[in-house]
Amino acid sequence: DDPKEYREAMEAYSSAPTGSGYLKRAEAGLCRYEYLEEMGRSRRDELKSVQEDFVTALVHNPQYTDAAIGLAEVSGIIRRGEARETGPTITAYEEQIAALGAVIERQPSCLQAWLARGDSYWRLANFKFWRGLDAAEEVRKAIEDFTKSIEMNPRNAAAYRSAQSIGPGSDGRL
Q1: Which of 122, 111, 128, 102 shows the shortest CA–CA distance to 162?
Q2: Cα 138 from Cα 126, distance rounded (Å)
Q3: pLDDT tens-digit profile of 56-90?
Q4: Distance separating alpha carbons of residues 114 and 111, to the nearest angstrom
Q5: What is the C-alpha to C-alpha distance for residues 126 and 94, in angstroms, rounded to an integer?
Q6: How far apart are CA 151 and CA 89, in angstroms?
Q7: Is the pTM of this model over 0.85?
Q8: Which of 24, 162, 134 is nearest to 10 (CA)?
Q9: What pLDDT shows up at residue 64?
Q10: C-alpha distances in angstroms, 156 versus 48, 137, 146, 150, 160?
Q11: Pick from 154, 69, 148, 150: nearest CA to 106
Q12: Are 130 and 96 in contact (CB under 8 A)?
C-alpha cells in the first residue's frame, strides 16, 4: 500500500492537467518504481503510465528538459526489461544514451542530462563487462560525462558521487 503522502501528491498532480502536473506525476511514479525495485516489489507494467505522463508533459511543453530526461530513462528501463525476455539489452542502453544525447544537443547546459547519460554509459559498461565484452569505451564516456557535470557545477554532490562510483575502491561494479 502506498504511503498517504504519495497518494495525496498523486491526487494533486492529477487534478492539475497541465504539463507541469503530468511531469510531477511522472517523476513521482518513477521514484515509486525505483523504490519498489530496490525492495524487489516493482512491476514494469506500472511504468507505462509513467511513460505516458512524460510524453504528455512534453506535448504540453516540448522544452521540458526534465520530461525528456525522464522519458529517456523510463523508456530505457522498459526496453531493457523487454529485452531481458527476448535477448541482449545493449541496444536498449544505446537507445537511452542516444535519447539523452539528443537532450544534451538541445540544451547543452543541462547538468541532469549529462549525469543521466554518464550513468547510462556506466550501466552499459557494467552490463558488457559482466558478459565478458569490452567496456572500455563506455567507461571512458561515462567519465567524460561525469567530468563535464563537475565542470558545469563544481558544488553538485551528485556529479562527484557519480564520478566516484568509477574510481578505485568505489562501490561500482567494474
Answers
A1: 122
A2: 9
A3: 888 888 888 888 888 888 888 877 776 555 555 78
A4: 5
A5: 13
A6: 31
A7: no
A8: 24
A9: 81
A10: 31, 25, 11, 7, 7
A11: 69
A12: no
SS (H, E, C) the chain: CCCHHHHHHHHHHHCCCCHHHHHHHHHHHHHHHHHHHHCCCCCHHHHHHHHHHHHHHHHHCCCCHHHHHHHHHHHHHHHHHHHHHHCCCHHHHHHHHHHHHHHHHHCCCCHHHHHHHHHHHHHHHHHHHCCCCCCHHHHHHHHHHHHHHHHHCCCCHHHHHHHHCCCCCCCCCC
What confidence tens digit (pLDDT) does each residue in 97-155 have? 999 999 999 889 988 899 999 989 998 998 888 888 899 999 999 999 999 999 998 88
CB distance 78 to 49 below 8 Å: no
Q: How far apart are CA 30 and CA 35, in angstroms?
A: 9
Compute the distance between CA of residue 11 and CA of residue 13 in angstroms, rounded to an integer.
6
Instruction: Tell me the three cell numbers of residue 65.
Output: 528538459
Grid cell 511531469 is found at: 23
